[in-house]
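Aim 2 progress. For 3-sulfolactaldehyde dehydrogenase, the working sequence is reproduced below.
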Amino acid sequence: MRTKVSAHKMFLAGNWIGKEETIAVHDPQDHSIISTVPKASAEDMLLAVEEAKAGAEIASSMPVHERMAILNRAAQYIEDRQEQYAITIAREGSKTIREARKEVKRCIETLRISAEEARRIHGETIPFDQMKGSEERVGYYYRFPIGIVGAITPFNDPLNLVAHKVGPALASGNAIIVKPATATPLSALLLAEAFEEAGLPKKVLSVITGNGSEIGDSLVTHRDVRMISFTGGLEAGKKIARKAGLKKISMELGSNSPVIVLKDADLQEAAESIVSGAFCAAGQNCIGVQRVYIEQETFEAFSSLLIQQVNQCKTGNKMAESTDVGPMINEKEAMRVESWVNEAVSKGAGLLAGGKRNGAFYSPTVLTDVPDDCTIAKKEIFGPVVLLYPIDHLGEAIERSNDVNYGLQAGIFTKDLNKAFAAIRHLNVGGIMVNDSSDYRIDGMPFGGVKGSGLGREGVRFAIQEMTEPKVVCFKLNQSWQPNSI
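Predicted structure tokens for this construct:
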């Protein structure tokens, strides 16, 4: 019996638009087609930008209370349909149904934080009389929206990462055009549906589906798009930066996150946390654990605990409540991870667990003794593989953690406050989790990295700062009057 395939339309400036040419959306678990979406052209994207120019005027004129109300209504719409949203996330992507439900809850939280932060876009008074000759001047600055934001989002968090761009953009009075990942566009379209039902005026939001190679440049290079917010890979980020021209750029470009386990750590807690951080979403997580540096005295004991935890992970049907690890986004990506692991093993790495592929599924894998010249030791794996390294002391762990072109988040497990603060000071990353894995984030914190991990910060309040500009206002007063003359 064949499953009926539904066709979706894209959301162009507040209108649902179909196209003759479509793109199939596959369930990576069995490669079945679950839907189709329009294959937009460069002309469609240019039209979205033209409409967004009017949308930016509408958005900037909306009073704050209206922005807040729309964001809260959209959050409520999603909350009332949580299971529908979770099933969509799980079907089109790699997440298990349990992981998908968590993402829906985070999306709701992101939109509600955006509503709250809309009321906190403040300016400050400026003491102009700090400069001699400016005694008759008073003034302030306030923040104004930049206009049109172009957002390009990845497949691994197809709802909440879109919300992290749309929520702050709308809270700060901007129009926004979203180009979702080609593999996972349905969740972004469901988010657009929530905003339509919440009463967002037309032209303020577009979600344009299509191939990035065909429509991406029209968004990135357009002079009226004043900011590009991109989440994705380092090489794609470099290309966007070269093409974007004179506009704001905010980029989160992934990592190969380190976690340090010192000999005084709670090893059981560390093992459980690292397994979760390394293998959730089948390892396709920008802050997922990739490298673990363990003090030599506890290396064997910790490795044993970690392998016990890994062997308890259940890989399989992502819609089953008991499944821990689902498929990767497609078989090609699973084959890439397989080739990187095989290269490392061929060069002398030890395979402690996993290392097996079945279609798009790749089993949770643990490697040791990985030579530094292996691809998997230098690049972001973005798959369910973790590398273990013994170290002699904290200084070595910090040095090796920093010896890559990434710096998004890191973790350290220790009971020694001085050592924790040494790591905090010297690890060259955007965030440090103490007694937790690198894979921890709340939607209200600043999120981003250094070096090849990106530019700028997300997290609602901090994204709003990126999506607004300060405008200075100065009054020159006539001080010739006397108090008794008024």
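The mean pLDDT is 96. This observation will guide construct design in the next reporting period.
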